[in-house]
Structure formats: structure tokens, C-alpha cells
Specification:
Elements lengths: L7 E7 L3 E5 L2 E7 L4 E3 L12 E6 L7 E5 L2 E2 L9 E3 L5 E3 L8 E7 L12 E12 L11 E10 L2 E2 L10 E6 L12 E7 L2 E7 L8 E8 L2 E11 L20
Parallel strand pairs: 3-11
Antiparallel strand pairs: 1-18, 2-3, 4-9, 5-6, 5-10, 6-7, 8-9, 10-11, 11-12, 12-13, 12-16, 14-17, 15-16, 17-18
Bound molecules: 2-acetamido-2-deoxy-beta-D-glucopyranose (NAG).
Length: 249
């Protein structure tokens, strides 16, 4: 039984990007580590010299200008992960939970001049995963919690009010069945965007997959798979206790 202590958890993930457009609001759902493209829908100068990208989330005093007149602000903490595409959309690579927020594309034909047209906001939400304890501390029959939290522009686990999409988070088993409480599993949901699966890990759980599924308007959009792996079956035993596979997008 002792060998189970050395099993490590690996996350294998499948990405489905969702772009939902409703009226003037665009919503985008992604996962930590993924790359996303934020569409600028009000471009005036095709060379992007009129394009400003601002970032804001609840709690910030002001919005942050990440792109000014088509150029990445080099003083931005995110500068290395940002890129303005030829159509003035903004590419964000290696997405972090702190990138969740409202990204707004604005147009100014002259520096300091009047804004041309309206705002084109993109609401970016980021699905994150974490464990309640280091993998090395996982012991048979003791509970370990797999946390699945959606970060929105309102904060971690804060589902947006007033946005038209209906968000759902579920834990599903390998057969696609929604996991419910049983003697070994416990599902705790503190909000529509914050759900935790607590498992008493057993030997037979090796290679078993638990999936945190995000639905938007009842459609499956993105998911994160948690899989307990036997020791030695993966090369990445050092470093973080578990990892996500990055999509190539
Ligand atoms: C971008 O295009 C506008 C409109 O054609 C032009 O006035 C401006 O000089 C261009 N900016 C650059 C940096 O090429």
C-alpha cells in the first residue's frame, strides 16, 4: 500500500475554446496555460495605430493600458505574453488566472483625441485547477481535494451577474456521468463557478480520470482532466506536482 504514496497526479487536458458573442459583449473561456486571441471588433486604421487595449477587473483602481496606438506597453507585467496581431486582435499566451477580466478594444485616431466609436469589450474567464495538498502528501484513504475554479472579471469563483451566458461547473467520471456524493467522493460547490471534488484515493484510482467540465448555456466548452498516474509513467516527476498539457493553438 505504501507505494500509492508516490503516485503523482497528472492533468491531461482538452481544450475547447469558446467565443460567445451576445450583442456588444464578447465572452471567452479558457484555461490556465492556454493561449487566447481577443478579437478587436472596432478597428479603424488597419495598421492598428488607432487601437488601444485596456485591461480591467473588479478591484483595480483603474484600467491598465496594455496596448497604446498599436504598441504593447513595455512597462506592462504582461508585455512578454502579449502580441498584437495583424488584424489588431490581442494574443495572450500562457494565460494566468490574473488575466481574467474585461479586455476592451478602443479606437483613437489621434493621440489625446476623441474616442472613435464605442468600446469593444471581451470578457475573459479562466478555468483553474489545484490540489488541496502536495502530491507527495497524498496518502491512501485520506481525502485530497481537486479544486476547479473559474476566474472571471469579478474575481475567483465569481460568476458574472447580468451576462447572458449560463455557466455550469460539474465533475464527471470516465463514463461521462456526473459525479455525486458517495462514501468515497464528495462534491462541494460554493458557487456556480467554484466546485471541489474530494476523493479518498485508492489503488484502483490509478489512471482513473476525473473531469471538471465547464458548460456555457448547457454546451460543453472547456474541461480539465485530473488523472492519478503510477510512478515512473511520466518523465516530469520534478517541478510542479501536476501539470497541464498545453494546446498548440
Ligand atoms: C496608419 O494608418 C493611418 C491611416 O491610413 C495613417 O494616418 C498613419 O500614419 C498610419 N500609421 C503608421 C504608423 O503607419
Amino acid at each position: 500500500m505504501a507505494d500509492i504514496m508516490h503516485y503523482f497526479l497528472c492533468l491531461v487536458t482538452v481544450l475547447y475554446l469558446l467565443i460567445g458573442v451576445s450583442g456588444d459583449t464578447q465572452s471567452l473561456y479558457t484555461r490556465v496555460g492556454d493561449n487566447v486571441r481577443l478579437l478587436c471588433r472596432n478597428v479603424v486604421y488597419p495598421n492598428c495605430s488607432s487601437t488601444i487595449w485596456n485591461y480591467y477587473r473588479t478591484g483595480l483602481e483603474t484600467s491598465i493600458e496594455e496596448v497604446g496606438y498599436g504598441k504593447i506597453r513595455i512597462t506592462s507585467d504582461r508585455a512578454k505574453r502579449l502580441e498584437v496581431a495583424s488584424d489588431c486582435s490581442l494574443h495572450v499566451s500562457d494565460v494566468r488566472a490574473e488575466d481574467a477580466g474585461i479586455w476592451t478594444c478602443k479606437q483613437f485616431l489621434t493621440v489625446g483625441g476623441r474616442q472613435e466609436g464605442g468600446d469593444a469589450p471581451v470578457y475573459l474567464s479562466v478555468l483553474t485547477n489545484s490540489l488541496s495538498k502536495p502530491v507527495a502528501d497524498i496518502v491512501p484513504d485520506r481525502p485530497v481535494s481537486l479544486k476547479c475554479i473559474l476566474y472571471t472579471s469579478d474575481g475567483p469563483g465569481k460568476c458574472l451577474r447580468g451576462v447572458t451566458e449560463r455557466i455550469g461547473l460539474f465533475w464527471v467520471g470516465e463514463a461521462g456521468n456526473e459525479l455525486k456524493n458517495d462514501p468515497r467522493l464528495q462534491v462541494t460547490q460554493t458557487s456556480d463557478c467554484d466546485i471541489t471534488l474530494t476523493v479518498r484515493v485508492q489503488k484502483e484510482d490509478i489512471n482513473r480520470k476525473w473531469t471538471c467540465q465547464l458548460t456555457v448555456n448547457e454546451n460543453k466548452e472547456i474541461s480539465i482532466d485530473f488523472t492519478f498516474m503510477a510512478p515512473g509513467s511520466r518523465t516530469s516527476t520534478a517541478g510542479p506536482s501536476f501539470s497541464t498539457t498545453s494546446p498548440s493553438s
